[in-house]
Amino acid sequence: MIEISQLEKIYSTGKDCMIAVKTTNLTIIEGEILGIVGESGSGKSTLGKMIIGLERPSNGSITYKGHPLWNKKKYNRVEAGEIQTVFQDPQSSLDPRMSVKDIILEPLLALSKVERKEKGNRERLLQLIKRVGLKEEHLDRYPHEFSGGQRQRIAIARALITDPSFIVLDEPTSALDVSVQAQVLNLLKELQKERNLTYLFISHNMSVIRYMCQRVAVMFKGEIVEVGDTKEIFEHPEHPYTQKLLSSVLTIQNDTDTQSIILK
Amino acid sequence: MLEIKNLHVDFEGMRGKTEALKNMNLSLNRGEILGIVGESGSGKSITALSILGLLEENAIISKGRILYNGDNLLELSKKNIQALRGKEIGMVFQEPMTALQPTMRIGKQLFNVIKQHRNLSSKETKEAVLHALRDVHIDNPELVAKKYPFELSGGMRQRIVIALAMAAPPNLLIADEPTTALDVTIQYEIINLIKELNEKRGTSVLLITHDLGVVANVCDRILVMYAGEVVESGNTKDVLSHPIHPYTKSLLNALPDSVEPHEPLQAIEGEPPNLLKRPKGCAFSERCHFVMDICKEEHPELKDGGSSHQASCWLEKVIV
Ligand SMILES: Nc1ncnc2c1ncn2[C@@H]1O[C@H](COP(=O)(O)OP(=O)(O)OP(=O)(O)O)[C@@H](O)[C@H]1O
Ligand SMILES: Nc1ncnc2c1ncn2[C@@H]1O[C@H](COP(=O)(O)OP(=O)(O)O)[C@@H](O)[C@H]1O
Ligand code: SF4
Ligand SMILES: [Mg+2]
Ligand SMILES: [Mg+2]
């Protein structure tokens, strides 16, 4: 579905330049959840932003179903609303002055009048918010009146309103507590199946990646150092950074037979 | 060495009284690492701030005592508690930048703190600075001492904060989410560092985190908090492998590691109660699968003392 080839992003600040993403090649297959892990500053978000059009690549290309997304300096959206996004911090990614209804409907502004009318009709909106676990009376409220988990549900509804095929999720549950994270991950997985969505799922939480993604790409200092089947990579990490990453995870390993807990 | 007894902390606000901590009890023994776990808003930081005398102005301590080596910290003067902070009790918070002076070189910051608390000559203090940096595994202390905080990575900064907190050296270290803002690999290093300082110097540690993986790997004992109350406490191993309280069980089950990728996660439905109007009975009753009539009417108490593993749940009392 998405082909990324020789992609690079160089930020120049004054006389310094910073290679955020280094000659990257990556394929995203239709219908999959592809994970991206890596340390802070490794270029995960920059990669995601180049796909959704928020950052311009310095070199290389991205194609979406065969169409190039970037033509020189210009982002060609395929079809408006095909590609959507959900960010980490539901607090700052939702405009505090807009009502929930306006927030959810905003992405439709990029669509044609006809489509806007069709996708923005009240019935469809109500169905959608119900699906993500919100209520009709929430529509007239403002983001600050909601908990972190609820705000992330609002962000998910906003991404779905245009009926996208592909969604970039950048740390969608990193700001949430475990119990709420579980609710949101369940919702994201169900929606992906129901609507045959493709996700690029950015996270630094290895357990979340293991649970959500069929394949995973490991980023280190702007490069994808390893990519493949999640299970395979978790069991046989090849790159030293992947090995370090996996051995640093602090988990509770409950051995169900002996009911004893193994501490690392 | 540290004991909290029946501590109640409220916040007076426009919409009424928030009961942020309700009947908190805790005891930390010398040389021990005690963990406090719980989700956001459960009262972990309020507990730490109460001990340190750093609660905000609108906080009201309506009941309770905080005993440190026998002295009630709540009765100490502002000056005395300030003297205790830093010297006796070191602290590390989530965001390292808040504990560092942005415009002062790392070496100078450490120099000042060591000079203040230890009776050393300037030359000895300079030595102690380098030593302190080496203790937190800074490879080239001479170089790092000359840097400003903004020139360092988040993990390095948190090491410096730990070095500052340990400089006096204190007998108790309070660390509130010390690794929450850090990468997995750096978290691992910082957690090992805290463990090492505890083993080498015998510093007691109160480690506050929402991450069960972290407590599983360092704490001797843990307290699980929910809605401002301790709902379960005991040895780490006992609590995590044989949880008694339904909340602790649900929390462990909600971790992505507890199911196979094709199974749905076991989320805890609903949300914690509004602390402005707590339920009359058990605070978890609205979300608990095992809820009984008594749970909604009467508040289950955590037995004080007694067995080392305990939970405040009617279910446990019915079975026992
Ligand atoms: N607008 C910008 N100008 C200059 N440098 C930038 C800019 N945005 C990002 N960078 C740099 O590019 C690198 C990659 O950043 P990016 O945000 O992609 O990291 P990340 O992997 O998403 O990290 P995190 O896990 O912290 O979110 C970093 O070194 C960052 O400092
Ligand atoms: N200054 C304040 N004014 C009013 N309520 C507060 C204040 N500080 C904390 N609270 C409330 O106290 C409760 C416990 O907070 P806290 O101890 O910070 O939680 P955490 O377990 O996440 O550290 C929360 O419900 C919070 O909203
Ligand atoms: S007291 Fe009742 S409601 Fe509360 S946790 Fe126990 S069984 Fe559940
Ligand atoms: Mg990022
Ligand atoms: Mg806190």
From TrEMBL, chain A:
Source species: Ureibacillus aquaedulcis
InterPro entries: AAA+_ATPase, ABC_transp_ATP-bind, ABC_transporter-like_ATP-bd, ABC_transporter-like_CS, Oligopep_ABC_C, P-loop_NTPase
Cited CDD domains: ABC_NikE_OppD_transporters
Gene Ontology MF term list: ATP binding
Alphabetical UniProt keywords: ATP-binding, Nucleotide-binding, Transport
Residue span, ABC transporter domain: 5-246
Family: Belongs to the ABC transporter superfamily.
Keyword DNA repair: no
Protein name: ATP-binding cassette domain-containing protein
Keyword match Transport: yes
